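Morning. Coffee machine broken again, so started the prediction first thing and wrote up yesterday's gels while waiting. Chain of 280 residues, entered below exactly as on the submission form.
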Amino acid sequence: MSRNNAASRPTRADQADRHVLYQKAVQAPDFEVEFLDRIFRELRGRKPLSLKEDFCGTAYLSSEWVKSDPERTAVGVDIDADTLAWGRQHNLEAAGSDVAARVTLLEKDVREVTEPKVDIVCAFNFSYCLLEKRDELRHYFEQARASLKDDGLLFLDLFGGTECETEAEEETELEDEGATYIWEQVSFNPIDHHMECAIHFEFDDGSRLDNAFTYAWRLWSIPEIRELLEEAGFSKTRIYWERFEEAGDDSDEMEGTGEYYETEEAENQESWLVYIVAEK
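Came back before lunch.
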């Protein structure tokens, strides 16, 4: 084969579907469905049936939610028409007519959707951090609260830690994809906590998909989020912190276990992810 023919052959990066890679690298809908179900049952004493997934993207979580129980329904809300269309084809229609019929996708601003009332509203993958002003975020929380049934719960996730205010890269191998997921913290402004981040993918043929996803948002703190939730009318907030343990023989390094417990006090880590649950 000539060098010209080899050069014209599509690379792995050329052929990659960024949404497939994102779902495998970032999302964990099986865990999140179990977590939503467990916490709601513990706090409300009944099985949750209806979900609104704000900033839903490809509606991966919504599709797994309705798969988990034949009585469950979901509403996915996002402003990106192309991403919703991808999710409709690859996550909903691919799962069959029963799943697709129980998920409603809306191309709208999440602050505009308060019907139908649901058991759970969630905004995961730090998506609400795109709202960088207090008034904007408070208004979103007010609208999320208005979307809930009387005993409904709002679920959020948030990241932080001592390394989150620095420029950094973290790599994770995606073994089944022959690819490496790269999370980059591009910049951080300590004055207003505005930060920019990016997701890249590097493949085993040496090709690379740069800036598959980019983000510009505010690194909010846990107390700021709790205060805004209280101002928005929520009656109580709870923090679920990941349990850490020593990493192998290195007693100086800790790693997350994937187990979350409710607490009001924790030891700071280089990097952490928490769930915040707000009761209407």
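The radius of gyration is 20 Å. Going to sketch it on the whiteboard this afternoon.
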